[in-house]
Automatic annotation (TrEMBL):
<feature type="binding site">
    <location>
        <position position="243"/>
    </location>
    <ligand>
        <name>substrate</name>
    </ligand>
</feature>
<keyword id="KW-0007">Acetylation</keyword>
<feature type="binding site">
    <location>
        <position position="64"/>
    </location>
    <ligand>
        <name>substrate</name>
    </ligand>
</feature>
<feature type="binding site">
    <location>
        <position position="191"/>
    </location>
    <ligand>
        <name>substrate</name>
    </ligand>
</feature>
<feature type="binding site">
    <location>
        <position position="167"/>
    </location>
    <ligand>
        <name>substrate</name>
    </ligand>
</feature>
<keyword id="KW-0378">Hydrolase</keyword>
<comment type="subunit">
    <text>Homotetramer.</text>
</comment>
<protein>
    <recommendedName>
        <fullName>Glutaminase</fullName>
        <ecNumber>3.5.1.2</ecNumber>
    </recommendedName>
</protein>
<dbReference type="InterPro" id="IPR012338">
    <property type="entry name" value="Beta-lactam/transpept-like"/>
</dbReference>
<dbReference type="Pfam" id="PF04960">
    <property type="entry name" value="Glutaminase"/>
</dbReference>
<dbReference type="GO" id="GO:0006543">
    <property type="term" value="P:L-glutamine catabolic process"/>
</dbReference>
<feature type="binding site">
    <location>
        <position position="160"/>
    </location>
    <ligand>
        <name>substrate</name>
    </ligand>
</feature>
<comment type="similarity">
    <text>Belongs to the glutaminase family.</text>
</comment>
<dbReference type="GO" id="GO:0006537">
    <property type="term" value="P:glutamate biosynthetic process"/>
</dbReference>
<dbReference type="InterPro" id="IPR015868">
    <property type="entry name" value="Glutaminase"/>
</dbReference>
<feature type="binding site">
    <location>
        <position position="261"/>
    </location>
    <ligand>
        <name>substrate</name>
    </ligand>
</feature>
<dbReference type="GO" id="GO:0004359">
    <property type="term" value="F:glutaminase activity"/>
</dbReference>
Amino acid sequence: MPDLQSVLDEIATDLKTASERGAVASYIPELAKVDPGQFGIAVLTPDGVVHSAGDANVAFSIQSISKVFTLTLALGQVGDILWNRVGREPSGNPFNSIVQLEYEHGIPRNPLINAGALVVTDVILAGYKPREAIGLILSFMRSLAGDDSIIIDVDVARSEEETGFRNRALANYMKAYDNIRHPVEMTTGVYFHQCAIAMSCRQLAVAGSFLAGQGRHPLTGNKVVSAERARRINAVMLTCGHYDGSGEFAFRVGIPGKSGVGGGILAIVPGKASIAVWSPGLNKVGNSLLGSRALERLAKAMDWSIFGP
Ligand code: GLN
């Protein structure tokens, strides 16, 4: 087996200077300001050691990666009845698509597209004020990452508030089917803030590590979720975590992963590694171009595809 640190160093050195880098998301104006020349990667192994390379300590907007954590939180709050309000099938459509909601009577295809994540956030909101729900999500991220310095980038949150018409449309449409139970502005407001959480690859790899450890966090020893729930969240990440690029990601990389339009990807190798990679330029379906390439190289070098060598 090759040495993990050497593999990461090699990937980071190559990709830091790659000429083809994809396009930084511009529909959220604040994200368009990010320097596309950055690349970072961090891997937490079950022994509790974090290996990293490149810009692994630079905080970026986690965006849709937050959906994995809000899903975990909502399942913890209400259990499997959550699945009455959101499906578990890949959408085959862009992350912000509205079309399937009509055929499926306001039930989103899965919790990792925008419509599904809005429902999950609406579930978390029950019994809380928006500010409290935002606090709950942020505290969850901080405790999983073991780092209280993690914050919400208020400029990104404001930028999303100002431009999030599609997300409001999704929420309004689902509200017509009573699948959004709070005022639309409340649910979208919390959602915009969870997307605007800023974290580094190192913090994210640590935060996601319970998914690689059958639900147990390797650094704290805490059981975050049951082994069954961790397995199921990983299954949803594999099938739905890259929107209409999920099949391609499974084909090329072969592990559960969740991307965000900030250019980050959290990827899980059950029993072996929690990986966070970041490069802001996106491919045509909105997933990090170099992040996906890096994971393809890493999984191949370490023999980490869940489908075998
Ligand atoms: N905040 C973004 C949005 O709602 C998240 C999308 C993403 O990361 N794919 O559009």
